[in-house]
Every structure is written in C-alpha cells, then in structure tokens.
Batch of 2 targets.
Target 1
Amino acid sequence: MILDPQFECEDQQRLLEKIIKPRLSSLFMRVYDQFSYYKWRFDEAGIRPEDDPLEVLAKLPFMTKRDYSMLEEDSMILADKRLFHVETTSGSTGRPKRRFQSMTDEINELRLAMRVLAGFDISKDDVVVFMDVGNPSIYIWFAKALEALGIKNTIYYGIQSDFNLSLRKLIKLNPNVLFTVPSLLARSYDTIKEMFGNNNDLKKIIYFGEKLDERFRKRIENELKVEIFTHYGGTETSTLGGECSAHDGIHIYNDYNFLNLVEPKIINETTQEGESAWTTMQIDIQPVIKYRMGDVICIDYSKCVCGRTSPRIKVIARTDDGFSIYGEKFYYDTFLDAVYSKLTETGFMQLVLSTEQKHDKLVIILPEKLKNKENDIMESLYHMNELEFFLEEKFITLELKFVPNSHFTSRKIPCIIDNRNYQ
Ligand SMILES: [Zn+2]
C-alpha cells in the first residue's frame, strides 16, 4: 500500500521545487537562529540561510559524528518544556550520543514509519511478532506505527541467552510476520528453520538495524518460503526508508530527508554510488545537515515498478566495517565470504584484533557448529589474496575460536572489535 501517493509518486522535479526546496530553506533559517553550531558553519562558509537551498547544501561541509555532539547542548535548551523523549546510544566513538525529541518529532517520525511499514503490505489480521533480546523500546515504537495502520496484533517476544529453549514457544504464537535484527536471525536460524520450515503461516520477515548478508537472505527465502523486507534508518535521522514489494532496493522518502553523496561515482544515467550524507527536513529539535551516517550506498533514480517515483538505495558497506594491517585495508564482508563459502552455511562471525608481543593477532569467533570445518575455513582464509602475505610473513597471527550461541548476550554483535595498541 502507498500511504501518501502525493509525495511518493510525485514527479521528482516537481517535488523538488514544490516541497523539498521550501522545506530545506525553512530548515536553514530555523537552525541558523537556534544552533550555535550551524550559525558557525554558515558564517564560516560565507553563506546566508536564505540563499538558494541547493547552493547552501553544496557549500556547507559534511557533518561528522563529532559535529553531532556539538548540537546536544543547543538541542537540550531548545527542547525545554517541549521535550518528549531522549534517546541515548553508546556511539561508536565511545562517547554516548543523545538525541532530544519533541512531540512534533514523535508525530512526524511516526508518520514516516507508517509510510514505510505500509509498503510491507501487512494485513490487518496478521500476527506480528517482534523477536529480540533485552530492551523492547524500539519495538514499542514500531507497534505504535503498525497500530496506526490498523494492525493491532503485535507481540514482543524476548529471547534469553539459551536460544533454543526460549525460541521453542515462539511457534505457539502463530506469527505471520517476524520482525527482528539480522545478527539475531543468524544466531537463531537453525531453530527457526526447524520450527517454521514446514509452516505456511509465516509469510514475512522484516529486519532492521544491520545489513543482511545477501546469500543468507536467499537461503531464508528459499527454505522458509517467506518474503523479506527491510526498514532503514539511524538514531540521528530516525526512519529513512524501506523496501517495497518489488524488492529492488530501499525507497527513501525525500520529502522528509534529503540525500547528498560524499564524492559520488556515476555508475550510469540513473545510478550513483558513494557514502550517504543526510539532511533531515522534518526533525524539529535536533536536525542534521549533510550528516555522514557511515553507509556506502548505491542510489537509483529511475521509477520503480511499485509506482513510487522516490529513489531507491542499496547499502553496499559500512565505512567502519573494516580495519587495516600495516596500511592494508580489510573488510568484514571479505572474511565472511571466506568463512561461509557455501550458500547452505551461515551464522554469526566476529573479528577481534589485539596486540600480542608487538604483533597483530586476529581471532575469528564463530558458532561451534562449524568446529568440524576448522581446517577448511583456515585454508580458505589463508588463500584470501591480501591476507596470505601478512600471514606468511608473520605480520599477523590468526586463530579461530568456536563458541555456543549464548556467547553473545547483547542485541547487536559488533562486527569488529579492535583492541590493538597501535591502530
Ligand atoms: Zn518500489
């Protein structure tokens, strides 16, 4: 279902002139008055908030995670009595990030979440089960958006560290839609497959928060006969988009959020690639302008078969999903491909780097069910192009560690932990 066709199916040029440019201008004028950070940025770049909005965007520098923390104090003062909610996340730099939200934010963001969830075509009779570990707050918010769409049967199902045992009763809820994060899906997949492999009631799986490995996705679709959708967003930006039933990328909602690319690469007439930077036009208390969220994406401006004209993105990589060894860059996905070389195998993987006797050490943490494949995995890793040299010259030592599912207790597993002295 397309909830707001007047925006989602509008001619893109007309949308830019009628909606996007006025919204950008009003954002610039507002933030120039209200935020010392933005005033400083505008003044330094020699631009006025009332200048042509696309020119303003072209001249303003990209905003980093460090810049984001400079908004906090102004946002707190601005929120004052309108403060409705504060979201706190650990933040990748080790310093907690805070986002202040007003009731206007809550309503605007709920509307956009409704548009994204409407695109998943969940029926009013469906039972939607949120499967996760720990704090259910994000799901309460998804449940609100679903309820606003008339889907009332939503259940939060908390998983304990004994996965198999706590998952067993999930099937008794007869879910039609399962809503979860990819790392949890990978850890619980064997049990899920056992439970739902021959069950036709489960129709859809919706994931968010992390990237889902493309081969794992195909495997789930084939084995469970389900349709898979993703919700896309971030703490600082809230919802940004979602997949439609054409399953050819994530629609972004550019009447809400404007996208710039860092050093865009032209792929063809309608497609570009680069790191995404977002401008949130509908965020009230803590808006961002050209904010680098850390995703490298591919964007396609051609019209989708679902009828929406809004561009579609595919997330290619996270900028922080890598590490370097003596200047050579390695990516998490390359290791994942080497370890899980067959389509039929999948599961979690974590890379832990440390320094041992002045040398780098890489420990790859894997599920214990792969223990009998240890030699194959080692061989496959030793044949990774760039790694081979570093291993042979003993610049780095490699170790595999096999752990039970319960090894990870938090909701999201960090892909890479870098504990080296010199990074
Ligand atoms: Zn579409």
Target 2
Amino acid sequence: MKDIFRDIEREYEELRRENNRILEFRTSKIYSEIPQIKEIDEFIKNIGFIAAKEQILNPSEDARERANAEIIALRGKKESLLKNAGYSRDYLDEIYSCNKCKDTGKLPNGKRCSCMENKLARELYNISNLSYTLKRENFNTFDLGVFSKEKYNDEDLSPRENMEMILKISRDFIKTFNDENDRNLLFYGPTGQGKTFMLNCIAKELLDENVNVVYQTAFTLCEVMEEQKFRRTEISNLKYSQLFSSDLLIVDDLGIEMTNSFTASGIFNIINKRLLGGKKTLISTNLSPKELSSTYTDRVFSRVFQKFIPIKFYGNDLRLKTNS
Ligand SMILES: [Zn+2]
C-alpha cells in the first residue's frame, strides 16, 4: 500500500525535476539571446527583496502596492520582449504537467487531483498491462474489412454496415464523453464479434485524453467485490472506491456466471450509483437483453438498463476467420 503512494510520489518528483530542467534550459537560452530579460529578472528580484525588507522595517500598504505595480509592469515588458522575439509570452513561466495541482497530486482543497486518481487506477488495476493490449487494439488497427458485406440472418444491416454504425456511435460516445448525458453503452452479442476490441478502442482514446478509466472483466470485478467483503485491506478499499469514482467504468464480458445474488446485486449497486452520480459505464455481454432480464430480475434490470443504449453485434465468428 505504502509502496503505491511512494512510487507515485516519486513520479511527481521526477516530473517536477524534469520540468525544472526544461525551464532552466529555456532561461539560459533566453538570457543569452535577449540579455535585457536577464536584467529585468534581476530587477524584479531586487524590487521584491527591497520591498520585503521595507515591509519589516516600515510596514506600509502604499509601498507594497507600488512595488507590486512595478513588478507587474516589468513582467509585461518581459513578456513583450519574448513575444517580439517569436516566443510565447509564458515561455519563462513555471512549467506544470498538470496545472490543476501543479504536479503535487493534491488540490488546494486537500482532495486528490484527477491526475493522481489516474495514476492510482493505473497502479491498482494494472492499466500498464492493458496498455499493451491497447497498442494492438485501437481505432488505428480497427479493420472494417473483416466484417462481411453479405446479409446475415434476418438482420436489416450487413455485419459491415452494422459495424460502421457501431463505430459512429462509439466515436460519438468519446466526443460527448464530458457532456452530461445518460449515454451508456451496452454491447451484446455472441463472442468473436469485436465487442472487446471496440471497448479497447474507446478505452485507448479516453485514456489518451487523461480520462480516469477503470477496465475490468466482470470476473475480476467480482474478485474486487469479494476481496472488499471478505478480506478488506487499504488496497481493496481504494480499488473498490475507484469502481464508483472513476470517470469511466468498463465491464467486459458480463455473463451468466455472475448470477449468484451477491455478485449480481454488487454489480448493479455499482452501476446504479454511477448512474446516480452522472458517471458513465460501458458493458459488454454475451447475453441477449432477454437473457439478461431473466438472469437478473426484471425490476432491477429495467431500472438500470433503461439508461444504456443496447447495441447488437452479429455476424460470423471473427476469431475463426483469422485462424483459417
Ligand atoms: Zn493534477
């Protein structure tokens, strides 16, 4: 437990050091290119120093305001010198990878910053293992060509047309992810239809945007819940709370084995609380909506799943195709 936080703290330290190095490099470059800026910086330092001394000996609101106004004017001059030389005005400002917490992981109100939550989720849920999968399975490697253009059973759309539609819905989901809407997706259909692949595409895209994503199979989700119930530790507490607090929870492969009442009600409790908190969830399952509603009781099912857009995957098993 301690190790996780210590590792993350080290990461922040390294980040701050790296950003400082960049700033030092920029400063020495600018000082030699535009010596006037070096003079201004020394001036600013001096004014600050003298004003601080003055405040101790002879505190005066006027003197402090005068010093501040002088510093602001000098900073303005420095910024226009930078701009005239083709640099951005903030080129010599402190650099932060996360402006919200200034690379400390903590917000001014003492709460954990979202970048800290991301790091925690990554450590707790082994997102680094996931990232290996995401390198292979993402929108860039997604190939519409593997889906048949032939009509399939009684479906109106061919598997390829259907997949084009799913692709569009998935991209819309990403585009509107930060909007307040009830857009949760339920991917259903037999195995080998690309459901998990599509979940991976979405996860990759949102992780790249620094969204806090927790990706679990229904099976490992049950393990987290059991751990929390029977062997509660600080880690299991954290993992469990992330199921509720993450920006996006992905539950892959919700199936028939999850039907004992403890796990079923546990999963629904999580999804329901997320819905109430305006947090989004993606689910994939091999069960049809009909099987789902008979597996889970109708009442629970309809309340939760009316907030999900059901999306059907169908066609020939793609895994057989790639093996042949
Ligand atoms: Zn932050």
